[in-house]
Specification:
This protein has 126 residues and is mostly helical. Helices cover 76% and strands 0% of the residues.
Length: 126
């Protein structure tokens, strides 16, 4: 059901009737979106050293940025069915925390580790 909901952003309500095909589409879309957000942070971190030097703060801020972009821009423009009821506070907090820690912080720490491995210390260079 979750992946059909994600697929509905692209194909609308047909997603809930398409069975396995819409589940597969939802999985592909989910990972594609996550990969795009990861790539954006990676590219930014290569240009802005502060993102690598302060991975916790920059990751949490980036997670908040992703939350705002996804919930205020991407989702309203997609074909996802919109609820007539307001989002509960618990649901909103869960969504924010998930993106802060599972996307923002995780991506920033992985990017920092990756970029630090690419740097060769000057005293060991040939």
């Amino acid at each position: 059901m979750v992946f059909q909901y994600i697929a509905s952003g692209l194909i609308g309500m047909k997603s809930f009737e398409a069975g396995t095909a819409s589940i597969v589409l939802g999985v592909v879309l989910h990972f594609m979106i996550a990969l795009i957000w990861t790539a954006i942070f990676y590219i930014a971190a290569r240009k802005l050293e502060i993102l690598v030097r302060r991975p916790v703060v920059s990751g949490l801020v980036y997670g908040g940025f992703v939350y705002i972009c996804m919930n205020w821009i991407v989702l309203p423009l997609s074909g996802i069915p919109h609820s007539t009821r307001p989002v509960s506070l618990v649901s909103r907090i869960n969504g924010v925390l998930a993106l802060l820690f599972c996307i923002g912080l995780t991506v920033s720490l992985l990017v920092r580790r990756n970029l630090n491995q690419d740097v060769v210390p000057s005293d060991t260079a040939p």
